[in-house]
Amino acid sequence: ITPFVAKATPEQCDVPSEDHGLQCNPYVKSRMCDLDKDEKNKWKSNSTHINIAIFKGLSGWQEFYKQDPDMAIMCAIDHAQAQGVLSDMIVEPVFADDESSESGGAKAALCMRNGGLDFAVGPFGSAIALNAGIIGKLFKINMIGTVTSSPLLSNKDPASGFPYFSRVFPSDLFQSKLVAEMAKQFNITKVATFSQSPQAYYDGIVNAFHSFAGELGMKTMSVT
Questions:
Q1: Are residues 108 and 73 in the same domain?
Q2: 50: part of which helix (H) or strand (E)?
Q3: SS3 106
Q4: Can you tell me the distance from the alpha carbon of 218 to that of 210, in angstroms, rounded to the nearest whole number?
């Protein structure tokens, strides 16, 4: 987990501040995917050097969550190399800014395509992942979502779904069904739900819960 990273200018980087985070780190700055530059296949992997794209929002609503996958993937790489799994390879991250937005997700995926990257960790959030996943589907870019619960992000149906998208976070349908079944086990017959978040995730899981709870004979109501 890393601190929120603002889009810091070179001048701002000269002034010490925790808010600048990794954006002012020379290593990170040297490994940023840039769609506005001519980086055709710049990050393409080979038999001894593997580059993994890291979707990282540098602005927007992720400021609230303060969660990014970069430190986790770098720790995982170090651990794998220490165990001898990747002893013959150099594995490094390439940072793709998804701007914490839906359009930014597509832009980051296009940056991957341009740079020759074919595997990504992220993006964070279903709305961003859906747009990035469409690009991934078109160009066969593999992605692993970190917090992506939308049922639409399914790799079960290659024709209509996202065959190159996987996730490490259960879908809304899985979570809400489990909660409904738990309520049934406790003999709960009436449930009121509260959802005050602007994020679609909460609406999705609450709506799915109402559906599953109804099938189990419970009466539900939503309070907003």
A1: yes
A2: strand 49-56
A3: helix
A4: 9
- Is 5 within a domain? no
Model pLDDT, residue 22: 53
Show the tokens assigned to 132: 């990035």
At residue 123, the 3 state secondary structure works out as coil
Domain contains 1: no
What angle (nearest 5°) sits at the alpha carbon of residue 142, between those of residues 49 and 120? 60
Give the list of residues 6+ apart from residue 172 with CB closer than 8 angstroms, or none.
149, 150, 151, 201, 204, 205, 208
Alpha-carbon dihedral angle through residues 45, 46, 48, 54, given to the nearest 10 degrees: 10
Count up the domains in the chain and report the number: 2
Q: What is the pLDDT of residues 66-84, one digit of tens each?
A: 445 566 677 777 787 788 8
Residues 6 or more apart from 26 whose CB is under 8 A from it? none
- pLDDT tens, residue by residue, 10-65: 555 555 544 445 555 677 778 888 888 878 999 999 999 999 998 887 654 444 44
- Which residues share a beta bridge with 97? 56
Same domain, 144 and 211: no
Question: What's the confidence (pLDDT) of residue 97?
Answer: 84
State the residue range of the domain holding 70.
10-167
Q: How far apart are the first and last CA of the chain?
A: 31
- Calpha distance 9→23 (Å, rounded): 9
